[in-house]
TrEMBL record:
<dbReference type="InterPro" id="IPR034035">
    <property type="entry name" value="Astacin-like_dom"/>
</dbReference>
<keyword id="KW-0862">Zinc</keyword>
<dbReference type="InterPro" id="IPR001223">
    <property type="entry name" value="Glyco_hydro18_cat"/>
</dbReference>
<dbReference type="InterPro" id="IPR006026">
    <property type="entry name" value="Peptidase_Metallo"/>
</dbReference>
<dbReference type="GO" id="GO:0004222">
    <property type="term" value="F:metalloendopeptidase activity"/>
</dbReference>
<feature type="signal peptide">
    <location>
        <begin position="1"/>
        <end position="19"/>
    </location>
</feature>
<dbReference type="GO" id="GO:0008270">
    <property type="term" value="F:zinc ion binding"/>
</dbReference>
<dbReference type="InterPro" id="IPR017853">
    <property type="entry name" value="GH"/>
</dbReference>
<keyword id="KW-0378">Hydrolase</keyword>
<feature type="domain" description="GH18">
    <location>
        <begin position="288"/>
        <end position="503"/>
    </location>
</feature>
<keyword id="KW-0482">Metalloprotease</keyword>
<feature type="binding site">
    <location>
        <position position="165"/>
    </location>
    <ligand>
        <name>Zn(2+)</name>
    </ligand>
</feature>
<dbReference type="GO" id="GO:0006508">
    <property type="term" value="P:proteolysis"/>
</dbReference>
<feature type="binding site">
    <location>
        <position position="175"/>
    </location>
    <ligand>
        <name>Zn(2+)</name>
    </ligand>
</feature>
<feature type="domain" description="Peptidase M12A">
    <location>
        <begin position="65"/>
        <end position="268"/>
    </location>
</feature>
<dbReference type="Pfam" id="PF00704">
    <property type="entry name" value="Glyco_hydro_18"/>
</dbReference>
<protein>
    <recommendedName>
        <fullName>Metalloendopeptidase</fullName>
        <ecNumber>3.4.24.-</ecNumber>
    </recommendedName>
</protein>
Length: 503
């Protein structure tokens, strides 16, 4: 285990070193912060967006909770930046801003480069009093467009989340609670907000959020006490049915933040490494992912049990598990029938839900015993995992699902080691091909009455999705629907622990 963790840590370190943004300070050309200072009477939209008036439906830049006017987008996907003299004398704070930019670079198709002669660029300055940013890409200016970051106020606990928040404004996003649908999710305590600050809680008309549901966890969401007259009393909070949700985090981009950036900028290929979100972002589900299960056996069933690729509504899912691939001679194998079905599913996905991820499942009643045999031998586990990564990638799939029906005699520790070997092989393949890491999904049967049932919670840190299942007996409906097994299984619960985040 220690050796495995050390290997993964080394891979991650290499990616960070080669992906890190390098900035070479040049005090002679750096602008003095006093020349960049704002007028004391400067006004801010939503508290920290500078240089833009209140929104209207006629000025062409509103309509989503991100910019819709192409002239305000960084269409080249390259964002030049420079640090003020004060920042260049604060290497630790400067590095935190570079770390913030590095997150965008790894999770989206945006690139940050040190400014040379560009007239449209981000000018990072050390404002003495507040954190703020211009909105979207501004007109050419030799002094650039400001991103003000107070050295004392904008780097809480040595984190770069506030810098990410302001960069989100600079690339064209408003705060999450400004969405048209926000009153379905949060309450506003108007009595605790000063009259001259109530406009900071306005919501926009005709706003959508790039097809994403409300994100309590967004780095762009107000905190509970923002603009409060009485700082002990909330100004904004989740509604009662969402009372367990936290708002106002400044740890970093959420999964939904990342998806919205990639939608706004039409990012089609994501880099290898994406940040791990600090929590769920979809208020309608316990996780932001919704799984569908497709069984190849359904295509040959009679009567109402028959099911084909054309019957699946792809828009219902964020990922689909297709069963089953097989294991031949210790290697993952995709038969011709399954290959044809996968091609149909991929074509349907491309037409209706291009972001859908397709996982191939192995195991079940046919190959669980084979998995046990492989898991007992370290060299076989290594060979299987490495070959599976290559097979999945060449087939255009996004991950591997293992539906493991536990066979008596396999120690749980052996199964855990097998999963660790898969995780390591997928991480290495991702690094070698500069591709988003293949996912690992599990269906495990945790009924305590089954001999040696797998501890699903213990698998949480090792995989991306755990489906916990239990057996029940198919009654008289078994013959009428053409189910070939004496017993059928049903998914009871699905957890996504989001160590993998390509969505």
């Amino acid at each position: 285990m220690e050796r495995f963790l050390r290997c993964i840590w080394t891979i991650t370190l290499v990616v960070q070193i080669y992906g890190r943004i390098v900035y070479k300070p040049n005090p002679e050309s750096a602008l003095d912060d006093t020349s960049l200072a704002l007028n004391l009477n400067a006004t801010f939209l939503e508290g920290d967006i500078f240089g833009i008036d209140a929104p209207s439906d006629t000025n062409g830049i509103f309509g989503k909770n991100g910019v819709v006017d192409d002239t305000l987008k960084w269409k080249s996907l390259v964002i030049p930046f420079a640090f003020s003299k004060t920042f260049q004398n604060e290497p630790d704070r400067m590095q935190l801003v570079l770390d913030a930019m590095d997150v965008f670079q790894k999770a989206t198709c945006l690139t940050f480069v040190q400014r040379t002669t560009e007239m449209q660029y981000l000018q990072i300055l050390a404002d003495p009093m507040r954190c703020y940013s211009n909105f979207g890409k501004q007109e050419p200016n030799p002094k650039g467009q400001r991103v003000g970051l107070s050295l004392n106020l904008c780097f809480e606990d040595g984190k770069s989340g506030i810098a990410q928040h302001e960069i989100m404004h600079a690339i064209g996003f408003y705060h999450e609670q400004s969405r048209l649908d926000r009153d379905e999710y949060v309450d506003i305590n108007w009595s605790n907000i000063p009259e001259d600050k109530k406009d900071q809680f306005q919501k926009y008309t005709n706003t959508t959020a790039f097809g994403e549901t409300y994100d309590f966890n967004s780095v762009l969401h107000y905190g509970m006490y923002d603009f409060a007259i009485d700082r002990t009393v909330w100004t904004i909070r989740p509604k009662e049915k969402y009372k367990d949700r936290k708002i106002g985090q400044r740890d970093g981009l959420s999964a939904t933040d990342i998806r919205k950036i990639n939608k706004m900028y039409n990012c089609t290929k994501l880099p290898t490494t994406t940040p791990t979100p600090s929590g769920p972002s979809d208020p309608k589900f316990d996780t932001p992912h919704r799984g569908c299960y497709y069984s190849l056996a359904g295509e040959s069933r009679p009567g109402n049990g028959k099911f084909t690729a054309g019957d699946l509504d792809m828009t219902l899912c964020t990922y689909i598990i297709v069963a089953f691939g097989s294991i031949k001679n210790g290697r993952l194998t995709i038969g011709s029938d399954l290959s044809a079905t996968l091609e149909k599913l991929k074509a349907s996905r491309d037409n209706s839900n291009p972001n859908l991820k397709i996982f191939l499942s192995v195991g079940g009643s046919a190959d669980s015993a084979t998995i046990s045999t492989i898991a007992r031998n370290a060299s076989k586990s290594h060979a299987y995992a490495r070959a599976a990564a290559l097979q999945l990638r060449s087939s255009g799939l996004d991950g591997l699902d293992i539906m493991y029906q536990h066979k008596a005699g396999l120690e749980p520790a052996k199964f855990f080691s097998f999963i660790q070997e898969l995780q390591r092989a997928f991480a290495i393949e991702s690094y070698e091909t500069d591709s988003v890491r293949l996912a690992i999904s599990l269906v495990v049967f945790s009924d305590p009455t089954l001999t040696g049932s797998i501890n699903a919670k213990g698998l949480d840190p090792l995989v991306d999705i755990v489906n916990v299942a239990a057996y029940d007996f198919a009654g008289t409906d078994r013959k009428s629907i053409g189910h070939p097994l004496q017993r059928r299984w049903a998914l009871l619960e699905c957890h996504n622990f989001i160590t993998w985040n390509p969505f």
